[in-house]
Specification:
Length: 227
């Protein structure tokens, strides 16, 4: 992804991540085996032929567009949701005891070194970032970030729920952009995600050390200041 289209997508992803603090979780999307089968069929060729209802009819049948009454934006949004569900299923049986590593597993499954998926995603983000998409990119980002925590078997609530999703929003946004540009090498992706997570863990330990040495009232004020 390069040029004006790439800049547009990068800006849209940055806005989506920045908007996490103000957003509630979007409603779940409809899904059924027939829709999922159509999505897998078009996803295999979308990187070369694009996301459109015409392509969908060509590869999935003359009435396949009726499965997505919201048009091409719904089509791409539904594909992102399918990828989220595939990720959750793929690591459902993980025996990794560390939460950070379960998050890493989820990220790497969600953003694999698969040329067809990366090409389809690049084309899809062009659709989601368009002015007429009605906030679809932000919705897909929110769903994916929530799905990663779900896949990682984290069941936080309250402020912890929000702060974890804000933190992961920054990590996921950076990882997504890196994946779109350089995600053809699984080992390189693994190292990139490891570095991002390690940085968050180092900050968490530093924050805990600082707050741990303060009296109660000062600790509360400092915690508010550093987020």
């Amino acid at each position: 992804m390069s040029g004006m289209a790439g800049d547009k997508v990068r800006q849209a992803i940055a806005f989506a991540v920045a908007g996490l603090a103000a957003g509630s979780m979007p409603a779940p999307l409809e899904h059924d085996p027939v829709r999922d089968a159509a999505l897998r069929t078009i996803a295999a060729v979308a990187g070369q032929q694009g996301w459109s209802l015409a392509v969908l009819r060509d590869v999935a049948g003359p009435e396949a567009d009726l499965l997505f009454p919201g048009g091409v934006v719904e089509l791409v949004e539904a594909w992102s949701d399918l990828c989220d569900r595939d990720m959750i299923e793929a690591i459902a049986d993980t025996d990794e005891p560390r939460l950070s590593q379960r998050v890493k597993e989820a990220l790497l499954v969600r953003l694999p070194a698969d040329p067809a998926m990366r090409a389809g995603a690049r084309a899809g983000f062009g659709v989601l970032a368009s002015p007429c998409a009605g906030g679809a990119l932000r919705r897909t980002m929110l769903r994916t970030i929530n799905a990663i925590w779900h896949a990682a078997q984290d069941h936080s609530s309250g402020m912890t729920y929000l702060t974890k999703r804000l933190t992961l929003g920054g990590i996921y946004g950076a990882t997504l952009l890196y994946w779109l540009a350089r995600g053809h090498d699984a080992a390189v992706m693994d190292a990139f995600v490891e570095r991002r997570l390690a940085g968050v863990l180092r900050f968490g330990k530093f924050k805990a050390k600082i707050l741990g040495g303060l009296p109660g009232s000062a600790r509360a004020s400092a915690a508010s200041a550093v987020g």
